[in-house]
Design a protein that fits this description.
Number of strands: 18
Radius of gyration: 22 Å
Distance between the termini: 28 Å
Strand content: over 45%
CATH superfamily: monomeric porin ompg
Structural class: mainly beta
Strand order of the largest sheet: 1-2-3-4-5-8-9-12-13-14-15-16-17-18
CATH architecture: Beta Barrel
C-alpha cells in the first residue's frame, strides 16, 4: 500500500510542477527530443548517472528535413569517473554542431563538465555540477542570393551572378559558464531524479555586423521517474522546462519498456510518446520514440510530427533523430554509486 502511495505522490508532484510553471510557457525550440540522452546539454550534474568505466553518446537530428536543406545538429559526449583520494569525481566533455539555412549559420559548442555526488541518506543523494565551454557562431553569405542575382533566363536566383551586396564572413565567439544540481531519491523499485541548471551565467555577448547582443541565462528544470511496473515492464515519465529570456517551452511524456531475459544479448526494448508544449496552449509537435538496449550498446530514434496546424511552422516542428550510446562495463569490482540510467 505504501509503495502505491509513493508512486501516486510522485506522479502528482510532476503534474503540479508542470501546471505551476505553465503560465510562463511560450515558444522556444528545445533542440533534441531525446533530451535525457544529450544529458550534458541539460545539466552538468547529469554526469556519471551510469554504472561503468566510460559512457559515449552520439546523436544526429535533422529538423525540417522535408523542406529544402534541413536544420542539422550533431552531438557527441564522453564521460568517465575518476577516483582521487578514494573519492569519485565525474568528468565529461561534449561537442555539438549546428548547421542552419543551407549552412549559412554554423555554430560550434564545446563544453567541459565536472560533478560530485554526495549521499545525504541511504536513499537520497545530491549531485552538484559545473560547466565551462567555448561557443562559436558565424554567418557566411556565400550561399545566399540577393534580388540583383535574379536570372530572367532561368526564372530563378543564381548565386554565381554578380551582386552589389557585400557581406563579410562574421564570426562571434565567447566563453560560457553554468552550474546545476540533481537530487536522486531511490525507492524499492524506482528512482526519482529532479534537477535544475543555470547556463550562460556570465551572460556572454555575441556580436554580428557591429551589433552586440547579450545572451540571457538559460534556466532548465527537469524531472524523471524510473518505475518498474512488474518484473518485465517499466516506465519512465519525464518533464523538462526550458526558460531563456521571455521564451519558455516544455517537453512532457513517457517511455514504456519491456525487459528481456538477462542472458540474452538484447536486454530491453522500449517506445515512448512525448508532447512539445500543449495541454493549455497550442501544441507544437507529438514525438514518437523507439529504443533497444543490447549488450554494451543502446540504439534510439525518434520522429517529431507537427500537430500545431500552422503551416508556417511545419519546418520547425518536424524532425527525425538517431543516436547511439556505448557504456564500457566496470573493470574492477566496487560499490555501485549511481543507478543505471534508462532512456
Amino acid at each position: 500500500m505504501k509503495k502505491r502511495v509513493d508512486v501516486l505522490l510522485i506522479y502528482a508532484c510532476i503534474i503540479i510542477l508542470y501546471v505551476w510553471f505553465f503560465p510562463a510557457v511560450k515558444s522556444q525550440n528545445i533542440h533534441f527530443s531525446n533530451l535525457y540522452l544529450t544529458h550534458l546539454t541539460l545539466n552538468p550534474a547529469n554526469i556519471g548517472s551510469f554504472d561503468g568505466d566510460l559512457r559515449a553518446v552520439a546523436m544526429y537530428r535533422a529538423q525540417g528535413y522535408n523542406l529544402g536543406v534541413p536544420y542539422q545538429t550533431f552531438y557527441t559526449s564522453f564521460e568517465k569517473p575518476f577516483f582521487p583520494f578514494d573519492e569519485q569525481i565525474d568528468v565529461g566533455i561534449y561537442y555539438s554542431h549546428d548547421d542552419a539555412g543551407e549552412y549559412n549559420f554554423p555554430a560550434h559548442y564545446l563544453f567541459a563538465n565536472i560533478a560530485k555526488r554526495v549521499s545525504v541518506t541511504r536513499t537520497v543523494a545530491i549531485t552538484a555540477g559545473l560547466q565551462i565551454g567555448y561557443v562559436s557562431k558565424s554567418f557566411n553569405s556565400l550561399n545566399e542570393t540577393y534580388p540583383d542575382q535574379y536570372s530572367r533566363e532561368t526564372g530563378s536566383f543564381d548565386r554565381n551572378l554578380p551582386t552589389a551586396e557585400q557581406f563579410d564572413i562574421n564570426t562571434s565567439s565567447n566563453v560560457s559558464a553554468g552550474m546545476g544540481f540533481l537530487v536522486t531519491k531511490t525507492f524499492s523499485e524506482s528512482v526519482l531524479n529532479v534537477g535544475y541548471s543555470a547556463q550562460n551565467l556570465n551572460k556572454p555577448s555575441e556580436t554580428f555586423f557591429g551589433e552586440e547582443n547579450q545572451t540571457d541565462v538559460r534556466n532548465v528544470f527537469h524531472t524523471k521517474f524510473e518505475y518498474s511496473i512488474s518484473e518485465f515492464i517499466f516506465t519512465t515519465p519525464a518533464f523538462v522546462l526550458v526558460a531563456q529570456g521571455k521564451s519558455r517551452q516544455t517537453l512532457i511524456g513517457s517511455n514504456v519498456g519491456y525487459r528481456i531475459n538477462a542472458n540474452k544479448s538484447i536486454r530491453n526494448i522500449q517506445g515512448g510518446l512525448f508532447l512539445r508544449n500543449g495541454i493549455l496552449n497550442n501544441f507544437e509537435s507529438i514525438i514518437f520514440g523507439f529504443g533497444i538496449d543490447f549488450s554494451k550498446w543502446k540504439f534510439f530514434s525518434s520522429y517529431d510530427f507537427d500537430i500545431s496546424g500552422l503551416k508556417s511552422n511545419y519546418s520547425a516542428n518536424t524532425g527525425i533523430e538517431f543516436g547511439l550510446v556505448y557504456i564500457l562495463p566496470n573493470s574492477s569490482l566496487r560499490e555501485i554509486i549511481h543507478p543505471t540510467e534508462r532512456f
